[in-house]
Amino acid sequence: MAAPQLSALEAALTPPRAHGPPPAQGLLRCEPEDFLVEEELGFVPAGRGAHLLLKVRKRNANTQWVAGELARFARCRPAEVGYAGLKDRRAIAVQWFSLPQPRAPLDFAQLRATDFEVLEAHPHTRKLPRGALVANRFAVRIRAHGEGAGLAAQLAARLAAIAQRGVPNYFGPQRFGRGGGNLRGPSAAAARSSRQQRSFALSAARSVIFNALLAARVSDGSWERLRAGDVANIDGSGSIFAIEHVDAALSERCARLEIHPTGPLWGQGSLGSTGEVLELEKLIAARYPDAARDCTDAGMAQERRSLRLAVQELRCESEPQAVRVHFRLARGGFATAVLAELLGHQSQESST
Prior knowledge:
Structural class: alpha+beta
Helix content: 25-40%
Largest sheet: 8 strands, mixed
């Protein structure tokens, strides 16, 4: 099957679904409390060291704004504040930050407000780096239209399929900014004089190539199965290995969600794939020459990302006029990739 010709905006915001037409319609994020996310670090604070590790609960607040407020309170430079990743603004998010150990104890109770509060503070040995978590846990309320009868029943079969097969590991709309605004490129971002905006633009450029490649693999059905020439990823890790030949053992491991095919995060260097897989990846990147050039000119190195996202601990609870869907995603996975397979009509605000 020929790879679909998607515009950059389509690849970013409306890539094709893998499980067919959505089984239901619903409303998301009517209130921040409708979207709960909590980081899972995968390690415990050291209990000693030159930094403080803070567990923070924020409501309807931007991660970077919270980091700035913490820096102001601790009288340190904003660059000295660490956090593992950006979290949605219109949500209740529990995430971790780090600060340099202050000379005098800080009374974090003074920071308690409607926007955020510090739940825990622990001494730690180092600044919290980006990506320093293993997973995120989500609890998402889907509000039904009208009387809402039968929403849980409408979603049941699709939830079972997602639990068994996973979902395409698309980068979510928040990666591309409101209305795809981050796709204007790093040159436009530089004109707006923000180093952060340039970083967002480069990230969007890389992500749109990946989404477009994944869309092609969704269209031919190979997003969830290995092909000769693929580079495979071991679920829940950064480990990858080349696939020269797909045998029964590899196919069975892939069916059990233990390993996944990957796609390129564009940059300088070898793609690692071979044969028809390599040709497809080159073809897709050639359709987005500006994005590919921006990534290589910025000195970004070729990396790989799983094409499939395993959705763990998936369950659904009925509520009056709504359901609450709970699930766990490995680091880097977007809840929007799950929700897009469930719902047709969505009211979303997914800025960070």
